[in-house]
Amino acid sequence: MSEQLTLYLHKLSPFSQKVQLALIEANAPYRAYPVDLVNKPEWFTSKVNAIGKVYYCDCDISWVPSVTYGGPSVDPEDPSPLSAKITESNVILEFLADLYPDSELLPKDPVSRAKVRFFVDASTKHVESPLYDFLRGDGSYENVLKGIDGDFAVGDHYTIADACISPHLARLKIITKTDLGQFPVGLGFKLGEELKGPKFIKFTKYVDQILERPSLKQTYDKEGVITYFKAFFVRTQ
């Protein structure tokens, strides 16, 4: 019997979604436990994730995901001290790749593994960060375009590189289709038009393919994310 694995998540968090994608793609058994981040429970901050770094916006959606692994299977609100507590989505992705090597979430070839790790690091710095800066009105759409100008993911097999980037690409799609965000009116649509150019054909093909993947559809609440954007990324002028 495999060790227990509990994923603490919020259904609208792209960081939680990364980890769910990897678990589903690895066909791994796990228990998902949603956390109320508006009224964050004391047990969560004291027993599961005492760090709670915020990257996404001024609300607390980046307190998740967290994972408990091993130890007895107990009430998720009272995790065993014998279980390992793991936080930070990209760290959890690597943990899952090591835990389920047959899934090839990380390739067996050392060079390919290095390429996947490089992509995860680069996409976090040059795609994820500029995208949410733009969403908050703190960055330019040119920086978003610069981040996605190049090859995407690594190889033909699904890896943690795909899991890492695809939740953000789903939200990029919302921005370009709805113009939701704290940037000036129309820039979301303008970004979408730029992405239709020949320079980004390979990128848009990848986005279309990854958004049709069953694991993505299973973990993505599009209407919920749109409602969330409308609530938290309101233009002030």
Overview of this protein structure:
This protein is an alpha+beta fold. The protein is built from ten helices and four strands. The chain has a four-stranded mixed β-sheet, with helices on one face. α1 (14-25) links the parallel β1 (5-9) and β2 (31-34). It is globular. Mean pLDDT is 91; it is low at 54-58.
Main attributes?
237 residues; alpha+beta; 4-stranded mixed β-sheet
Write a compact overview of the structure shown.
By secondary structure, the chain is of the alpha+beta class. The protein has 10 helices and 4 strands.
For the CA atoms, what is the radius of gyration? 18 Å
Residue windows where pLDDT falls under 50 for at least 5 positions: 54-58
Q: Which strand order does the major sheet show?
A: 2-1-3-4
Largest sheet: 4 strands, mixed
Number of alpha- plus pi-helical segments: 10
**Net shape:** globular
- The tally of strands reads 4
β content, as a range? Answer: 5-15%
Mean pLDDT, as a whole number? Answer: 91
Order of helices and strands: EHEHEEHHHHHHHH
Fraction of residues in H or I helices:
40-55%
The chain-level structural class is: alpha+beta
State the separation between the terminal residues, measured CA to CA.
Answer: 57 Å
